[in-house]
């Protein structure tokens, strides 16, 4: 066998027969020769073909339908088994920084909104206090002016001046009557007493 193989491969006869006769009887050569023979036999055996026809007992249409239904139900067979790849350290760091920045911006905007609300409330209170103070000041000035008119000494004044002050005093008394009558009805007696004394002063000046 070895001679024939050598002649086919080298296209010439084997010349070293003395070496062959000596080595062909060694156990190592027999083991090698047996292994090579077994390997050649395994190569000659037909390998199972994945596209081989189905057995006669099973219709081909049924198998094809089963395969298609299995693929349709599972989708891509390789896609389902593939694990999702985790993000890298840099991407995770960037995502964490962006999330932290969003939280910081949200907290900053919240504080700004709270500060604006507080400023608006303080400004409203200041405006109310200022309006109240101005109203009180205006009332005080008006009261001083009324008292000056009511206490004006008309001795020696001509008739026109007396008539002017009489009309001003009447206007003041009418306004006071309205102010006293508007809040409660209990202030009416006080208003009546005030009116009772006021005309007496006017008549006395006449």
Description:
It contains eight helices and no strands. Helix 7 (159-181) packs antiparallel against helix 8 (188-205). The chain is rod-shaped. The protein has helices at 2-10, 17-23, 27-44, 60-74, 77-81, 89-150, 159-181, 188-205. It is mostly helical. Helices cover 76% and strands 0% of the residues. Among the domains are: 1-37, no CATH class; 90-140; 152-206, no CATH class.
Provide the descriptors you would attach to this structure in a database record:
mainly alpha; 206 residues
Tally of DSSP β-strands: 0
Report the radius of gyration as a whole number of Å: 61 Å
Largest sheet: none
Helix run count: 8
Mean pLDDT rating: 73
User: What is the N-to-C succession of helices and strands?
Assistant: HHHHHHHH
Low-confidence stretches: 57-64, 73-79, 185-206
Organism: Puccinia graminis f. sp. tritici (strain CRL 75-36-700-3 / race SCCL) (Black stem rust fungus)
Pfam families: NAM-associated (PF14303)
Domain No apical meristem-associated C-terminal: 12-172
Region (Disordered): 39-86, 178-206
Give the gist of this structure:
With 206 residues, this protein is mainly alpha-helical. Helices cover 76% and strands 0% of the residues.
């Amino acid at each position: 066998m070895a001679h024939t193989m050598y002649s086919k491969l080298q296209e010439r006869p084997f010349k070293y027969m003395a070496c062959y006769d000596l080595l062909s009887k060694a156990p190592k050569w027999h083991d090698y020769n047996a292994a090579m023979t077994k390997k050649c036999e395994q190569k000659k055996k037909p390998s199972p073909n994945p596209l081989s026809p189905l057995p006669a007992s099973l219709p081909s249409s049924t198998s094809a339908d089963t395969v298609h239904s299995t693929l349709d139900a599972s989708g891509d067979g390789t896609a389902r088994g593939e694990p999702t790849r985790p993000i890298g350290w840099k991407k995770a760091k960037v995502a964490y920084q962006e999330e932290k920045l969003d939280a910081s911006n949200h907290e900053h905007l919240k504080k700004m909104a709270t500060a604006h609300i507080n400023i608006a409330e303080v400004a409203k209170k200041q405006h109310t206090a200022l309006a109240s103070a101005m109203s009180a000041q205006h009332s005080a000035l008006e009261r001083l002016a009324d008292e000056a008119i009511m206490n004006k000494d008309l001795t020696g004044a001509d008739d026109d001046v007396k008539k002017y002050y009489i009309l001003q005093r009447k206007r003041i008394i009418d306004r006071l009557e309205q102010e006293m009558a508007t809040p409660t009805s209990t202030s009416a007696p006080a208003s009546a007493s005030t009116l009772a004394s006021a005309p007496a002063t006017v008549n006395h000046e006449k």
